[in-house]
Amino acid sequence: MSTQSQPALIQPKAKINYINHIKVLLTVLVILHHTVIAYGAPGGWYYTQKTTLMGAIIPMTVFVSVNQAFFMGFFFFLSALFVPSSYDKKGPVKFVTDRLLRLGIPLVFYSFVLSPFLSFISYKWAEGHDVTYAQYLSGFDSWIDFGVLWFVAALLLFNLLYVFYRLMVGRIAFSVALPTVSRIITFAVSVGLISFAVRIIFPVGWVLKPLGFQLGHFAQYIALFVLGLVAARNKWLNNVKLKTGKTMRTVAICLIVFGFPLLFIVRKILNFPIEWYSGGIHWQQDAYAIWEQLVGFSIITALLCIGKHRWNNSSIFLSKLSRSAFAVYIFHPLLIVSLTVALSGWAVDPALKFLLVAPMAVTGSFLLGMILVKIPGVNKII
Q1: Residue 144's pLDDT band (cuts 50, 70, 90)
Q2: Which one, 106, 129, 145, 183, has the greatest CB density within 10 A?
Q3: Residue 276: how many CB atoms within 10 A of its CB?
Q4: In terms of DSSP H, where are the helices of 100-241?
Q5: Are 336 and 34 in contact (CB under 8 A)?
Q6: ∠ at Cα 85 (81, 90), nearest 5°?
Q7: E-assigned strands of the chain?
């Protein structure tokens, strides 16, 4: 194999341990994100018991807002890092076949098997309907529902578009220098402005059914997937600096500690609808979109740079968690819904339930994931 078609990360492969560690961190954040939504933060979920305590709602809202600013976009970036080398090695036919198996089968399974069962759990045991699963399915009409696997559907679409690009254009060698802090910030602001324009038509919360795409966030997702492809070809991660990571960490902290409260204070003073932060032609929507992208790109850069220099040691335990991350992503709703429904009758505030359910959901999801990846056949897909 020529040098040009080598995997576009650090060689040897053992030196990208931090990528796997970051993947575990992001997967944990996904579980916590959905658990927080179940118990108080804004957003929809299969079963919710929202707290009314402002002392809990505010930190929960900050948590999901900061998460949304970076974690799913980061998944797209990390996935894109391995796309060019995989395509070069396998060719278009094998690459597409592999993606259809590894991404398409989980989509079908989630939509036709897991999603209806998740809905049934809350329908029967939380809402108290005395029906069998067969009776429930006889009236079920939401068969195409990717749920949390909207990400997998989008990733499959992006991969197929990449194949189309390579077939039409071929492989073009181009050199793009590793971005400086100022260029990262400028790019983040640009993505924020594009997000603002998109959200005029598709506000945050608007979902393209049945795919489950929130188009208001897709400017970032597309940008980070493309950046992942560019980073892979130009081997950006070979040269990231710890100093850059520390700088962007400081930027992220300032934006969260001072920027988010400022958005809250401005709304209290001017008394405008909170929806103006989510969509429409409002300067508030523009401000929030830019804040969100600055936070997102700052955290992503900080994690990559600091991760490479500080979190790159090998760990058998973290390697096992990383290997099961995709399985965890698929099945974590089963743990969250089961636990929240099981505790639905417990007469305490939902915020207290979160403190119990969150660690159980994380632990249970990874234990289940580690079991599933040992099953022959299943481990070739997840």
Answers
A1: confident
A2: 106
A3: 18
A4: 105-109, 115-121, 133-138, 150-169, 181-201, 218-234
A5: yes
A6: 135
A7: none
The mean pLDDT value of the chain amounts to 94
Asked if residue 298 lies in contact with residue 74, where contact means CB atoms within 8 angstroms, the answer is no
Q: How many residues would you count in the chain?
A: 382
Closest CA relative to residue 26, chosen from 70, 80, 81, 61:
70
CB 332 within 8 A of CB 37: no
48-68: string of b/e by CB count within 10 Å (b at 16+)?
A: bbbbeeeebbeebbbbbbbbb
Q: Per DSSP, what are the bridge partners of residue 213?
A: 208
Q: Rounded to whole angstroms, what are the CA distances from 182 to 179, 305, 370? A: 8, 16, 41
Cα dihedral sign for 94, 99, 105, 108? negative
370: number of Cβ within 10 Å: 15
Question: pTM for this structure?
Answer: 0.94
* C-alpha to C-alpha distances, 105 to 83, 113, 153, 332, 376, nearest whole angstrom: 19, 11, 11, 17, 15
